[in-house]
Amino acid sequence: MEAGNMPQDKLMKEMIEANKKIKVAAVASGYPISASSEFDPDHSINRAIINCNKFRTGPTAWGASFCDQNQWVQVCLIKPKIVTGVALQGRANEDQWVTWYKVMYSIDGINWFYHESGKEYQGCYDRQTVIQHDFETPFKARSVRIVPTKWHGHVSTCFEVYFID
């Protein structure tokens, strides 16, 4: 009888272990964030937190100095973590949002690689909706960048990076 229950017991143990791993929102949790540029101090990277700008006056997202494909926002996870997904949101008080983007990652903060060979992910289509993308292939990284490739109005975004802790 016990032998017949072993696969069930093993499955239960695996499920318990999986539930111990908590999905963490890095940006909202206060991990260090940075950007390639900032339009001005009012459009700083500190404005890039999803759903946190509803009560602020002024710009409600990070805004890049330039509208080109050399712009990015990133979060540093301090030490390597398993990254499971990202989310983007537009600028709530203007028609500005990222419509397509790529994801880059680094283990050492120096050498950067495109996730899934530079695959483009579909971003936002309006100011308010949060678009979340869970990766089919999670990856290990210390730092993660969102690199806008197309945008509406201006390169502006709020973002989040999710990892398992």
Automatic annotation (TrEMBL):
GO terms for cellular component: cell surface; phagocytic vesicle; protein complex involved in cell adhesion. InterPro entries: FA58C (IPR000421), Galactose-bd-like_sf (IPR008979), Galactose-binding_lectin (IPR052487). GO terms for molecular function: N-acetylgalactosamine binding; oligosaccharide binding; polysaccharide binding. One of its GO terms (biological process) is cell-cell adhesion. It comes from the Eukaryota. CDD domains: FA58C. Pfam families: F5_F8_type_C (PF00754). Residues 15-164 form the F5/8 type C domain. This is Galactose-binding domain-containing protein.
